[in-house]
Amino acid sequence: MSRIAYVNGQYVPNAEASVNINDRGYVFADGIYEVIAVTKRQLVDPEWHMQRLWRSLAELQIPEPMSDPAMRAVMKQVIRRNRVRNGFIYMQITRGVAQVRDHAFSTEMRPSIVMTARNTKAVVTDEMSDGVKVVSIPDIRWKRCDIKSISLLPNILGKQIAKEAGAYEAWMVDEEGFVTEGTSSNAWIVTKDGELVTRPTDHAILRGITRTSIIALAEKAGLTIIERAFTIEEAKAAKEAFVTSTTSLVKPVTELDGDIIGNGQPGSVTEKLFALYAAYNDDIGKSA
Amino acid sequence: MSRIAYVNGQYVPNAEASVNINDRGYVFADGIYEVIAVTKRQLVDPEWHMQRLWRSLAELQIPEPMSDPAMRAVMKQVIRRNRVRNGFIYMQITRGVAQVRDHAFSTEMRPSIVMTARNTKAVVTDEMSDGVKVVSIPDIRWKRCDIKSISLLPNILGKQIAKEAGAYEAWMVDEEGFVTEGTSSNAWIVTKDGELVTRPTDHAILRGITRTSIIALAEKAGLTIIERAFTIEEAKAAKEAFVTSTTSLVKPVTELDGDIIGNGQPGSVTEKLFALYAAYNDDIGKSA
Lengths: 288, 288
Hints:
Oligomer: homodimer
Number of helices of chain A: 7
Helix content of chain A: 25-40%
Radius of gyration of chain A: 19 Å
């Protein structure tokens, strides 16, 4: 079955789904996106994703392309037409098509909206992945990484460095020597005292939805969470480390810049958080 | 006459010219571009533009979509089919279409290439524009602005701030308080001693082709050029200020953050440089 995309009001096969070359998303990276997990046909944390989507649009002064209920109806259709049981839905909104290339914009343009979906195996209820490798790189991104924009060139270059180094992710380090986040995930460590540490949300990182979920689940489980920046040296000396994202879930990091973290195996706190997150997703799936 | 675009081997009306929604240019801002001026059907400084284009591609590990002569043949066609006598040609190359969204990339993808053109009145031989206003904003861009990438979201936001302030351009200021460049142009001042000052090319600014031309013309005319960074305060106290770019040419700046520069009129050095650049372009046009 060929995948079906939603593009500006129409459902079309992915291979035929297109946007005009003068779409400002193509010319200026003038747009935003969201990726939402689907578990047993149910969206995971749609409220938080939609809230962040509307915020990203507002920050860029891009008008809302449709109402919240209309967006959700399209999401439902895209899930149905792609027969997604477990997987992800991707949505991208750009400022729209401007026939004349001009950096400045009108705030009254008609935004473009694209939505796609893909099936994966049931990710969450699988076993947690083995530990992955991470490398560190300088954070060369712009200063508004809190906006989930499609201006992702530094992220893809960073991810490529990781890939070429045989690593899963690259952790980006700011000019003060602190880790900001991964190229497509938030970064966490567990200290020798068992405290969970992750960078507070400011303009330097994206407020990950999985990050938010994990904080809530960890708090409920009585774990101590400290939102503060940490260095690569601190991470190397940590008991455990892991990343979170919609697609990575909770993924243990066991090697950082070639040094082993902890005993080189996924740690117990990471395992616990993965289990809590899996259960949380199972509950969402059961609400079907 | 509807404008004609070149898109991946085909010449199509602009309104019908499209790219797949999974083009990495659309999803990740994974691409580069160039804008070249056309004067009397002749390209202005094509060697320098092409050199920069190949460099931008190499920096991003995007394969060359076609040979240099083939690119020039397409450029010629796009100029001819759009009947451009004076105007601009725009070309954009992205890493191409990837059906699965993954930050990391294959270095063997087939790049997408788009080319458009538009007619303008004969820009260069017109009179120099009146002085324009500039506002200053923090430079929030990534740290590889030497690559002419389509990851332009901070630039368009900056230009919008300028527009909303009734200004022509925004000059971006780095964390040390020095002007980097405009959102789509290079920044210059003329000191009380008549010295031309513009920021040296590093990773913080784009090596503008018009900037390069002006340096060559100014040197030939016996002017003193100093490549160093300057502050907003220094610019306000300068005798003259101006911006250069392919579309702005040499444009006098007579107001900066509400303060008048010099006597509030375009200065004599700026006028001289405009005249030299106009003559340089006229010569290119005569070579037809």
